[in-house]
Specification:
Helices cover 55% and strands 0% of the residues. By secondary structure, the chain is mainly α. Among the domains are: 24-178, Ankyrin repeat-containing domain (Serine Threonine Protein Phosphatase 5, Tetratricopeptide repeat), CATH 1.25.40; 189-303, Serine Threonine Protein Phosphatase 5, Tetratricopeptide repeat, CATH 1.25.40. GO terms for molecular function: enzyme inhibitor activity; myosin phosphatase regulator activity.
């Protein structure tokens, strides 16, 4: 992937200011340049200067280093800050290989003592990691940044395992008045700057999904560097988690690759695709080398798959119920469209006598029946009285 964690993509071609055709004698100095250094600042670029240069010349570069040869290249215009595709400068390489004399030459020629490679390692990181005490002393004396933070959040003293070298670095930090608070501030300074920039972009109405170099977005950068606060802020403002860079990497790929488990969890919680594929058909799990992060991704994937399976099951059951209810309903005679339901109900109620009307009607009927019965009884009594009268009235 061409995009690196710090968000500063490195160019692959190495600019070279020396005109070797005009200075053919420089070609003869190649075998005297240290192998690692030559790979860092020359490589195929020198081969282009003279087609007659034998391919076996690079095999000869393992000859003992010659500060004279390097001095000649520098005096003839070689840029001391050239870097390869990994961002390594000549100064980085010499600090790895413990070439103090060449380090001095490079610094005198203007080499950047705090140059960062693609993972934000400075020459002091390299020298401290390798335990090269004399180079650590030289770099610190020349002003190397003791608080430089690489892409993993480590300073030079974090990476030093050699006791004597570590003791020197810590003493130098104390002499410069560096405290634990200073260290923590330095670790978070880059992310704070990014957070401030995001707030400014939001205020200015800038699209946070605008592709940068290699089509990486701000969310790619935050994810690659493990900037949790910046990632949260971007997601709050609808940053696109599905955006892909030139290699087809989504932000989740970047977080997984550089082992930032908290950012991985954050992105997945917001719906990032655990099965997203890159141009090379790689998922976030495929590009992750950190065992802890791999375990977390697998755990999240299992939970995601279980939830999806349960969701699909409920969805299927709901569809069957809906289909069944629809088929039963089709056999029921549809209601009349003459009235709306409430109107039909009112109309039906109006056609029926109320309970009170029924009671009144029954009461009237009962009264009439009583009157008729009384008339009949009265008539019978009159008849009886007449009949009795013939016998003599009682």
């Amino acid at each position: 992937m061409m995009f690196h964690p710090a968000g500063h993509p490195r160019q692959k071609s190495l600019p070279f200011s020396v005109r070797a055709r005009d200075e053919p004698r420089l070609i003869g100095l190649l075998p005297l340049v240290p192998l690692g250094l030559s790979q860092c600042i020359f490589t195929a670029e020198l081969m282009r200067f003279d087609a007659t240069l034998p391919a076996t010349a690079h095999a000869a570069l393992s000859v003992v280093s010659s500060s004279f040869a390097v001095r000649q290249f520098l005096q003839n215009g070689l840029d001391p800050n050239l870097y390869n595709e990994d961002g390594l400068t000549a100064l980085h390489q010499c600090c790895i290989d413990d070439y103090k004399e060449i380090v001095l030459l490079l610094l005198e020629a203007g080499a950047d003592i705090n140059a960062c490679d693609s993972e934000l390692w400075t020459p002091l990181h390299a020298a401290a990691t390798c335990g090269h005490l004399r180079l650590v002393q030289l770099l610190i004396e020349r002003g190397a940044n003791l608080l430089a933070v690489n892409s993993d959040g480590n300073m030079p003293y974090d990476l030093c395992e050699d006791d004597a070298t570590l003791d020197y670095i810590e003493t130098a930090m104390a002499d410069q008045g560096i405290t634990q608070e200073t260290i923590e501030d330095a670790r978070s300074s880059v992310e704070r700057t990014m957070v401030d920039d995001i707030h400014r972009l939001v205020k200015e109405g800038v699209d946070l999904n605008t592709p940068l170099e290699h089509r990486a977005t701000l969310l790619h950068i935050a994810a690659a560097n493990g900037y949790l606060e910046a990632a949260e802020l971007l997601l709050e403002h609808k940053a696109n988690m599905s955006a892909k860079d030139d290699d087809g990497w989504q932000p989740l790929h970047a977080a997984a690759c550089w082992g930032h488990v908290q950012v991985v969890e954050l992105l997945v919680a917001h719906g990032a695709d655990l099965n997203g594929k890159s141009v090379l058909d790689e998922t976030p799990l495929d590009v992750c080398a950190d065992e802890e992060v791999r375990s977390k991704i697998q755990e999240l994937k299992q939970k995601h798959d279980a939830i999806k399976k349960l969701h699909d099951k409920h969805k299927s059951m709901l569809q069957r119920r809906t289909s069944s209810a629809g088929s039963r309903g089709s056999r029921v005679k549809p209601p009349s469209s003459r009235y709306p339901p409430c109107s039909r109900e009112r109309a039906t109620l109006q056609d029926k006598p109320s309970q009170q009307q029924l009671l009144t009607s029954r009461a009237v009927g009962a009264c009439k029946n009583t009157e008729a019965q009384n008339n009949l009884i009265g008539s019978s009594r009159e008849t009886n009285r007449s009949w009795d009268g013939e016998r003599g009235w009682d």
